[in-house]
């Protein structure tokens, strides 16, 4: 008995495989999107004058992965000689809350949250000098509040690791 092979083009099998894989991927993504709860991000940026030649302005980058994360960013500068503010918030986990409020120019605020139930608040003011704050939270349930004001060149860096559950809140204020 002689066996004959069917002449099925391999291109059509590859196309069918790709179509099936695409349908599986679409189903998986849509079922995840239905079960995931939305994160909230709110950004307010104000200025009096725009320097279109030097492209000075306020910039904010927000990245959220998880459920029920909240972000609130308010940035403003008002003088032509001031450079805008920069903020970056990255949340990886669930139920995290971060806020940055910056007035004046040349402020930099960064909040990185990995884990669940973190709270971080940064409030900066300024003059012609740079104020910068870096906050990193990992684990579960850490609470950090930072406030700065005044004549610049201040740099605050806080890293809190809360792997055993709860940590004591951290509050830093300078004027």
Descriptive account of the structure:
This protein is mainly β and 175 residues long. It has one helix at 10-35, and strands at 40-47, 59-65, 70-77, 86-94, 97-102, 107-116, 119-124, 131-140, 143-147, 154-162, 170-173. The chain is 15% helix and 47% strand. It has a 6-stranded parallel β-sheet, with no helix packed on it. The chain has a 5-stranded parallel β-sheet with strand order 2-4-6-8-10, with no helix packed on it. The model is unreliable at 29-36 (pLDDT under 50).
Give helix and strand order, one letter per element, not per position.
Answer: HEEEEEEEEEEE
Distance N to C terminus: 94 Å
Biggest β-sheet strands, sense, barrel: 6 strands, parallel
Poorly predicted tracts of residues:
29-36
Shape: globular
Topology:
Blueprint: H1 10-35, E1 40-47, E2 59-65, E3 70-77, E4 86-94, E5 97-102, E6 107-116, E7 119-124, E8 131-140, E9 143-147, E10 154-162, E11 170-173
Parallel strand pairs: 1-3, 2-4, 3-5, 4-6, 5-7, 6-8, 7-9, 8-10, 9-11
InterPro entries: Curlin_rpt
Organism: Vreelandella songnenensis
Protein name: Curlin associated repeat-containing protein
Keywords:
175 residues, mainly beta, 6-stranded parallel β-sheet, 5-stranded parallel β-sheet, signal, Curlin_rpt, Curlin associated repeat-containing protein
In a few lines, what is going on in this structure?
By secondary structure, the protein is mainly beta. The chain has one helix at 10-35; strands at residues 40-47, 59-65, 70-77, 86-94, 97-102, 107-116, 119-124, 131-140, 143-147, 154-162, 170-173.
């Amino acid at each position: 008995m002689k066996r004959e092979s069917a002449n099925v083009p391999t291109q059509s099998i590859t196309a069918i495989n790709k179509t099936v894989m695409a349908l599986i991927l679409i189903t998986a993504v849509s079922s995840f999107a239905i079960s995931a709860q939305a994160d909230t991000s709110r950004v307010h940026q104000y200025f009096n004058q725009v320097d279109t030649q030097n492209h000075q302005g306020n910039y904010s980058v927000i990245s959220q992965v998880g459920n029920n994360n909240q972000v609130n960013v308010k940035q403003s500068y008002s003088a032509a000689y001031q450079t805008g503010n920069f903020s970056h918030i990255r949340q990886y986990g669930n139920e995290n809350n971060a806020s940055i409020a910056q007035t004046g120019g040349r402020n930099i605020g960064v909040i990185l949250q990995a884990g669940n139930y973190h709270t971080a608040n940064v409030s900066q003011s300024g003059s012609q000098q740079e104020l910068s704050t870096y906050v990193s939270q990992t684990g579960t349930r850490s609470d950090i509040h930072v406030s700065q004001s005044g004549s610049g060149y201040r740099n605050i860096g806080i890293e809190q690791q809360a792997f055993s559950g709860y940590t004591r809140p951290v509050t830093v204020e300078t004027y």
